[in-house]
Structures are given as structure tokens and as C-alpha cells.
Amino acid sequence: ALPVVEARDQRKVAPNSVYVIPPNRDMAIFHGVLQLSVPEQPRGQRMPIDAFFRSLAEDQGERAIGIILSGTGTDGTLGLRAILGAGGVSLVQDPVSAKYDGMPNSAINAGYATHVLPVEKMPEKLLGMRAANRVYQPPQVVTGGLNRILMQLRTLTGHDFTQYKKSTIGRRIERRMGLHKIDDEAAYARYLRENPAEIQLLFKELLINVTGFFRDPTAFTVLKQTILPALVAGQESGYNFRVWIPGCATGEEAYSIAMLLLELQDELRARHEQELNIQIYATDLDDEAVDVARSGRYPLNIAQDVTPERLARFFIKSEAGYKVKKELRDLLVFAVQNVIKDPPFTRLDLLSCRNLMIYLETEMQDRLIPNFHYALKPNGVLFLSTSESITNQPHLFVALDRKWKFYRAIQVGTAAARAAPRAWSSFTHAANRGEAAGEKQKSTPPGSLAAVSAQALLQHYSPVSVTTDSRGNIQYVHGDTGAYLRPAPGLATNNVVEMAREGLQLELRRVFQQVNKEGRAVIGHPVTMKTASGHVALNLDVRLLPRAVDTEPLLLISFHPAVTADAEGGKKTAGARRGRAANAAAETLRIAELESELAHSRENLQITIEEQQASNEELKSTNEELQSTNEELQSSNEELETSKEELQSLNEETITVNAELNAKIEQLTSIRNDMKNLLDSINTGTIFLDHDLLIRRYTPPAVNAFRLIATDVGRPLGDITSHLDVDLTADLQAVLDSLIPVEREVRSGEGGWYLARIQPYRTLDNVIEGVVLTLTDVSKLKRISEAAQA
Prior knowledge:
Layout lengths: L3 E3 L11 E3 L5 E5 L2 E5 L10 H13 L4 E4 L8 H9 L3 E5 L8 H8 L5 E3 L4 H7 L15 H14 L8 H14 L5 H10 L1 H11 L10 H16 L6 E8 L5 H19 L5 E9 L2 H9 L1 E2 L9 H7 E4 L2 E4 L1 H4 L2 E5 L11 E5 L9 H14 E8 L13 E5 L4 E4 L5 H4 L6 H8 L1 H9 L6 H12 L3 E6 L4 E5 L17 H4 L5 H14 L3 E10 L2 E11 L9 E8 L12 H108 L2 E6 L5 E4 L30 H10 L3 E6 L5 E10 L5 E10 L1 H11 L1
Parallel strand pairs: 1-2, 5-6, 6-7, 8-9, 8-14, 9-13, 14-15
Antiparallel strand pairs: 3-4, 10-12, 11-12, 15-17, 16-17, 18-19, 18-22, 20-21, 21-22, 23-24, 23-27, 25-26, 26-27
């Protein structure tokens, strides 16, 4: 009973109405008003359903519902992904009930079908979605029910969503609750506990895998024309250009950047400039999305986003869609990774993280940005989406293009700051700026007497100290540590144990490990350190610093020169002095012997430690080689899997073609049998001739008029002896020339009569390919006619 009308431009949609798109038009929706336009792409390449669904997702957000019914092709699949990414719902017809299952199967196989239903069950489901599609209002405080839901997610999946924006998580949990007709978060938490499968569905719901090839085309144009050429300029041939795309989803953005780099490689080769060794790492939390990216298979409707030139060069087309070529696939390594807690890739030239941080709370964004800075090389480029920024970390990046969010990493002043872990990088940067800030305070009016006094005490009375992480990497230095630490030989390092001077290293390593293990400070630990002028006694303090939750521990190491206090009170007798001197001489001799033995032991221990460190370096190198070999084997395995799939696909196509050919052969055999029986059953002589009047086929009764044998096929009819009194060659040629049929009676030499009919030979396509001569015996009719006339 719904009214069905043709859609018109600028028409506001009304409830309970059906709008049909007119011919040769594209349709979109903007603020509830239909927008019609003339298609830009040629017929056969248009994806009108995808285009409309995308506009619907942008216009209606979580209120959007996309429905795919029976149809061929893949149109609508990418549009459903946009609707799901905006928080909407998708319904897909069960392929079993669809007359054409192409579109439903494409949406289901891509994983974008919220519900797969027969058509008759869709109205009930739509009515039940009213609660699921109401606008979500995030609570002012996190409820206990929401915490229990997130806790169950973390327990089953191992991923913590507490740092995701509560509005985003709330909307998607609210939608799942609405689908099950649950109004209370606590009740939904109980439902999750009783139905573990629902936790996996909710987990997939929270992973927003919405991406596309060359999303924001202008941004990719800037990347190709400006950013990438500047990054490779001046690099040596064979330079390893490293890229990381965290949150790659199903891989479209990663392949887009790979295409740009291959095109840049072609331009460099054309100018006979340097070659690049391109390495691209793409990671995501969703293992299913990563599997899709690894396969490199995409539906036909990616032609909406990829130019025909790139499709021809980088993809292989089939009936099922497009598959990336090996040249493009070999550039990328896909992996499952949690960018929040897993270590990042390092030494990167380009890091593209688009539309990931918009789903995270500000605190988590502030933790990720220093992580990205650490991953990039100095002057490396960070590529964000237009909705993201680095507002809270301006000291780490400088903007290259503020509109399209390209930022260049600033090289920080110390190696310690470059090595700062993600959990407390902001603290490290603040510490590295501490001395500069102190100098600035000298020239500015003090804020308070307490601050000035504290600064003076720190500068003049606090011991020489260093702050390190749990691995011993120095993060901050206070005072002149040259008397205790010196650059270690070999590769540059900022590890406090490796930089310790002779005699100090062994005790420092032991105390450092003890504090790390037991979590208790060690104060006043005596150590004897060897210097150029002899042995020096000092005291060592190692303390754990206070830290925030979920941050790595920091340790404060302080060095105190040992001071021997003078004896107090009373006068000493001369005899006591002489006795003390004698005892002191003996003690000094014994101490010298012990120190010599201790020095020898320490030298042996130091040699052992160095050998152990060398062995560790060799093991580390071997481990890196094994990892490299493992990656190569994994790449080879993926290539074999791809080749296997291709061979299987070719085998299936061959079987299909073979079955079709067998069916056609059987059909032709049947038709040939029917034709033979038909021609044998009629008593009319028929001769089929081509354009040159050569015999193509004849029926057995034709032998009565012409002396034909089986070997005469292919010979001119004029060369065959005829029993007829007349020559029909002229008539045959006349029909060929004029296409006008001829009919006449002819007499045979034996006294018989034939009705000769000559007409053009027409194919099913109405093409003339010769003539047909039929000879019907009318001798009896002729005699009856003559008798009647007599």
C-alpha cells in the first residue's frame, strides 16, 4: 500500500514512501533531501547503490539502515561498510531465497551484513530496531554495567576498550542491546556472561573497519606530489623507505600508499635516479580484517575509487572482483597488532594513522603521539586524517600541511628523549627540558621564595644522579657524572651499567637488578671505583621513583663520595698514636694485597662479562637473521597460498568451461541426429550450395535427379551429371544475385517430372550463405493433370 514515485531532485523524503531512481541519474541524500545528478562515469562502471549508501551514512549516521535484496554484481557492498562505520545497521536477503544471489553473497562474504534474513522476516526486524536506532546520549559518569561489559570484553578477547571514547562505545553497545530488546546495561552484561558468542559479535562491532582506496583524494595527491618526493630526495640508491600504517583495517589505505610509491619509483627510474627498497608494514587489531588485507581481493565496485590506469596496472580483474598483483602485494607485510600496548615499528620515513585516534580518549591520544614520534626517523612524516591533530604535542612535530594533516617529526635534543617509552614519554621530554627551564628562571622574576630556594639546593647540595628506566637506559642526568660514567667503547649507548667506570660496573649492575627485582631502595651501598690516581671509595643509592598507573618504573641512581669522619673528643696519648700508626701500616699492607686480588678478580669478571656481552650480541644478530628468514618464509608461504588459490580458481574455471563445451557438444549431436532423421524421412531431394555453387550437403532423394556420391561434397554442382533435361545453373546464380526465389517444373530423362524450387540459404543472423535447391517428384500429379485435360 506504499506509494511508489520516481525520485526528483531536491525532493524531501517522506515516511512510508518508495522512491525509484530515474534512468541515467546518480542519487544522494543531504539533510533528508534527494540530490540527483548526471553520472560522471560511463555505463557499466557506475555503482549507484554504493554512492547512495555512502551519502546516507554521512547524512543519517547511526540512524541509517541499508538493505540489500536480490541482484547481480557487487554494488552496495562498500556502501554497507560506510553505513556500519557510521553506526548504522544492514539487512541482507538470504541468498537461498534470492533469484540472483550476487549482491547478497558479496555483502555477506565481505562481512557487512548485520542480519541475513528472508524478505518476509525483514519488516519485523525493522520494527524491532527502533530502540537500537535512537540517538545515544553518553552518560556523565561511567556506569557499573558499562564497566562489567568492558571487563568481559577484556577477559575474553584480551583487549581493553576503557580508553576508547565512551560515546562511540556506548552507541554500539546500545545498538547491540536494542537488537536483543535489552534496555539495561547491567542486564546486557549478564546476557554477555551467558552468551559468549555475543561478546565476539560486540567485539567485531567495536572494531570500526571503515576505509577505502585513496580516501580524501586531494590528500593523496599532496602526498604523491609534495611529501613523498621530499622524503626520498637526496637518498642513496637502494635506500630502505619504511612505512607503517597502524589501524589498516582491510588494507585499502596501505595498498593506496604502496601504489603511490611504485609510481614514484617509476618516475625515479625514468629520470635514471636512485632505486628505492620499499618496506610497508600494515597492522590492525582485527584478525579477520588483516586476513582480508593479506588476500588482496576486493569487489568490482572499487572502480569507484581507483582510476582505470591503476586498476589495469596493479590489479587482476575477474568475475568475482579485483585481486592485487604480486608486484604490489610483495611490498606489504600485514600483522595483527594492538597499537596501544604493543611496541611500534621504528626507523620509519612515513607513518599513516588516519581515523584511528578519533575513537580514543584524549589521554590515550597524548600517549600515542609520542609513540609515533619515537617510531619516526628525524624529519619523518606523520599523516593523520582531517579530524585528528597533534595539538597537545606541538614540541614533537612541525606542520607541513595543516589542511591535510601532514606533520614532520622534530629531532629532539638528546638520545634519551628519542628512546623514551610511550607510557611516560611526556615526563621524559619535560625532564630533558628541565635545565633549560632552570636557566630561564635565572633571568626571570621568581614565582616564590620556596621555588628559588629549592632550585639552589638542588644545584649545590644534591648528589650527582641519573634517572633511568627499568632496563638502565638513561632518561635524565643531574650534575656532572663524568667522574662515574664515561661513553662505553663500541656502538653508542646510554645504558648506565655499560657506561659505568671500572670497579663501579659490577656493583652497580648487582644493586640495580636487586632494586628492580625486590622493589626496595638500596641506600649507602659502599663501592670502590678505580681511577687514574688510584682507588676511590663512594656510596651508591638506587631508589624507585613514584609513577602513575600503567607506566614503566623509573629508577634514581645517586653517587656519594665516601667521607671519613675525624675522631671526636678527648686528647690522644703519644703511645696511642704510635700504636695506631703501626696497626695502620699493617692494615694498609693487607688492604693493598686484598685490593690487588680484588682487582685481578674484577678484571677476570670484566673479561667474562665482555665475552658474555659479545655472545649476546652474536645471539641477537642471529635472532634478527632468523626473524628475517622467518619473514621471508612467511612471504613465500603467502605467495604459495596465493598461487594455490589462483590455480584452484583456474581449475574451477576450466571445469566450468569443459562442462559448457560438453553440453554444447551433446546439444549439437542431438540437433545433428534430428536433422539427419528429418532429411531422411522426407521424400524431397534437397541440395545445399554455397556462394560458389559448391555442394555443401544433400539428401538421399536428390540422387534420383543428380548422380551424386558421398565424395561429391565440395564439388561444383555443374560438374555433376544430371538426369534433368534442363541446366539449372543459370537459375541458381540468378537467385544468388537477386535473392528472389525461383520455382519451375523440369523433366527428367526417364520421363519423370520434378518441381524445382530455388531459394536463398539464410542463417539465423539473416546472412545469405548460398542457395537451397529442392526437387519434389510431381510425376503422378503431372499424369493426372494430363489425363484430366485429355
